[in-house]
Structure to design on (148 residues):
């Protein structure tokens, strides 16, 4: 088992082992959240990254994500209610579906999904997915929107 600096380093090691096609002593697998693996699979292709469809037996452990606040956080109850509403209404799943769809488009058209920086020259600068498919599905949501 190797611990890596960040997920990009781990995925680079994983994909490099597949590209080299030579006998290697080290073989890599990745432990990563299921939804994020689905995103990476859509981004890079099913032929490069296998994610089981039946995750019951493939699940290493269940990840529950929470956002911690202090007990004195003045908007704790409103925050909990709003997060619950986002989940119950399906907005969170909709955002996930949009991200997976963008990843498929990125792969299909060879678009750089992280084109937020301007450190490339104009000649070799790749387009962002938002330049090609300007999708504004949800307006900016504020607490006031969700409270009404």
């Amino acid at each position: 088992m190797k611990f890596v600096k960040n997920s990009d380093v781990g995925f680079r090691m994983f994909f490099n082992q597949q590209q080299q096609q030579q006998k290697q002593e080290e073989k890599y697998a990745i432990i990563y959240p299921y939804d994020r693996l689905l995103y990476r699979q859509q981004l890079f292709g099913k032929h490069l990254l296998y994610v089981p469809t039946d995750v019951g037996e493939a699940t290493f452990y269940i990840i529950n994500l929470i956002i911690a606040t202090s007990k004195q956080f003045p908007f704790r109850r409103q925050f909990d209610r709003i997060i619950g509403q986002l989940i119950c209404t399906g907005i969170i799943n909709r955002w996930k579906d949009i991200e997976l769809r963008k990843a498929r488009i990125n792969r299909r058209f060879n678009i750089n999904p992280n084109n937020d920086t301007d450190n490339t020259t104009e000649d070799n600068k790749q387009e962002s997915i938002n330049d090609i498919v300007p999708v504004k599905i949800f307006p900016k949501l504020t607490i006031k929107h969700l409270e009404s």
In short: Residues 1-65 form one domain.
